[in-house]
Amino acid sequence: MAVRLQVLELVETSNVHNVSKLLGIPRRTIRSWIDQKDDILAFDGNKKRMKLSPGGRPESFPDPVGLLEFIKEMRVRERALTSAHMITWIKRFQTDWLRTYLARKSLGTGYQAILRLLQRFCHRHGFSRRKAGCGQQSQAALIEVRDEFAEAFHRS
After folding, report:
1. Which among 19, 96, 112, 130 is most buried, taking Cβ atoms within 10 Å?
2. Does residue 134 lie within any of the structural domains?
3. Superkingdom of this entry's organism (predicted)?
4. Which regions in the chain score pLDDT beneath 70?
5. Residue range(s) defining the domain that contains residue 34
6. Euclidean distance between CA atoms 37 and 5, whole angstroms
7. How far apart are CA 82 and CA 107, in angstroms?
């Protein structure tokens, strides 16, 4: 951004050809920066940053906010969350997208593709995979232990 601002200042007093020679930046690049002048001058982020908008691959899932809320809600309620639960949520709320997504996949690979997409989605948003341990207890037993601990904690 700092380079772009410098180029825009120089272009006001000189022409594009001279600025291009001086800084070693292609003329077409300078002309595109002149076209984006309002956005560049309005930018209030870090001046070392090279791009106006954040980069990265666009989200392929149509409602990432909704799925994130579902995942967080399940975790707040201390419920187990599996890929099957997320697929059920997608079936309920994003049926059209799921149909078109699976139609693009070759026969027999659709389910694996959606599982991998969900794993990447969770990883990208900071959710780790929680595997069940060997001594996994029932949900009722865990709730009982939690309640006993809460009672003992608040008594003391």
Report:
1. 19
2. no
3. Eukaryota
4. 48-55, 130-135
5. 2-42
6. 9
7. 24
